[in-house]
Structure formats: C-alpha cells, structure tokens
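ping. complex inputs:
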Amino acid sequence: MDRMTFIIAGIAVALIIAVAAPFLASGNPDGLESAFFSIYDAKSYTGDELDEEAAGAAEERVVEVTGNDFAYESPLPDYTVPGMDTLGEVLAVVIGTLLIFGIAFGISRISARPDK
Amino acid sequence: MHIPDAFIPFPQAIVYWVIALIFIALALRWARRSMGEERVPLVAVLAAGIFAIQALNIPIPWGTSGHMVGAALAAIVLGSPYAGVFVLTLVLLVQGFIFGDGGITVMGANIINMGVVGGFVGFYGYQAVSRLIGNMYVAAFVAGWASLFISAVLCAVELAIAGTFPLDLGLLFMGGYHAIIGVIEGGITAIALYLITSARPDILERPQGVTG
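pong. complex structure:
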C-alpha cells in the first residue's frame, strides 16, 4: 500500500468508526464514573442499576469535597449537537475526528524535524 | 477515565498541569529531534483514529463501559513514549474544550494519566515483552492492558489525594473495572498494530527484529 493510500484508508477507518460509534456505544457509565457512583452510593460495585437521583446528589457532594466548582460550557457537550438527536451525535464525532486530524496535522507539521 | 473538574481541588489540579507541561515540552523536543516530516500524516491519522475509537464505549459487566485510550498504540507505532504524550495531549485538548469530556482545570492530570503513563508503560511494556516472548502482537496486547490498568491505579491515587475517593475503595473499584477495560485496550492495540504493519510493513519506527 503506498503512502497516500495508507493515509486515505486510515482516515476512512476513523470516519467509519466515528459514524458507527453513536449507534454502537454503550450508555453505561465508564470505569471512572462507575467507581465514583459506587463509592458515592448511587450504584453497587458489581450492580447494573444506577440510582439517577443518588447520582445527581453525588455530583453535588463531590464539588463540596473538592471545592472545585469550575464550569465550562463546551460547544458540543458530551458529543452531541444541541437540539439534535442521534444524527447530531454522528455529526459531533465526525466533526471531532476531522478537527483532530487537522489540528494534529498542523501541530505536528510545525513541531516535526525538518527534512533536509 | 477522563477526570471532570469537580474531582480534584484547584491547587492540586495546577500541580498536575505543571507536571503535564514539562512532559509536553519533552514531547515537543522529541518531535523536533526524532519525528521526521514524513511522519506528519501518520501522526494525524493516528490522532483522528484514536479520537474516533475513544467515542466507542464498549460495555463490560457490572453496569459499566470502557473505551480505548490509545497512547500505547501511538507510542509503539511512532517508536517513542513521547508520541503517546504528543497525540493524547491533542486528543484531550479537543475532547475537553469542544466536547466537555474531561475537565479543563484537571486536564493536566488527564494528560499525565492517559498520555504520559499510557505512553511510557505502553512503549517500555511493548519493548520488554517483545524481547521476552518475541511476538509483537502479544507484546502490544500486554502493553496496552498494562498501560490502561496502571493509568487507572494512578488516577485512583490522585483522587485519594484529592479526598474524592478513599484510597482502598478507589484502588479496588478503579483497578477492578480497568482490569477488564484493559482487555479492550490491549485487544484493539494488537489489532490496530496488525492492520498498520500489514498495510505498511516499513512503518514501525524501530524494527524489533521479532516476528509476529
């Protein structure tokens, strides 16, 4: 496979994953969130059930524990486009994939060792 | 494993940012010295692929899910632990600022856990197991698993210092969940390495002299 084909194939694979992810991804809390909810009594260690009310209370309690109430409004919160459903999630992950490709290309271009 | 802002007190978060910035500076020095211009498209594709696959949360038992981090893969393919730092820093910046995934004040801790630990454990784990066993895909699996598990253990220690988790429960829960999620990390690292080396056998920065 020549270099250009490899790059295009790589972007294609990334975009296929990006489009599929919102349909396939599990909505369960991730490992850190799950540990947090378990420790803060919103879920048991090996249990499937999340107590939504206790989860909300846990998120308020942890701010009191750390005192870090910094809040940031991201433009595409939690991989969604505000006001859109699953299509918005696909759009968000695709935008992110293309954006990170562009940023990584630009930053590595600037920081790379110049070819002689 | 993206720590949100509320989990770490602000002064501690600043300390992690300072440590992270030191590793980012070292990663930029690595890029200037060792990352040739011809590698730029590969770095960009790896970053895009890692971002996309991080959005794919795979269910594990116990009402939990986990996703690939990818620092080990970047470090193995690009031949330096600093490649993991470089790529994951970019991914975490976009995730934090555009998608609100991972905090802003605590981003330094996330860069340390996923980029630095992921990159270093991934790279040196791969080297060590490659020499020991001689199979690069087994080495990639073990290195991927270990990179994720040790990231989670460090995360539990940071959150214990923060007062957010008790140390014993934090280690048990973070370790338990991520021992399983590590299988996802190891598996995708090995598969991606296989696909990349099949498509471009010349691509590994330092040929290991081992066969798959």
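Residues 86-111 of chain A form the longest helix (26 residues).
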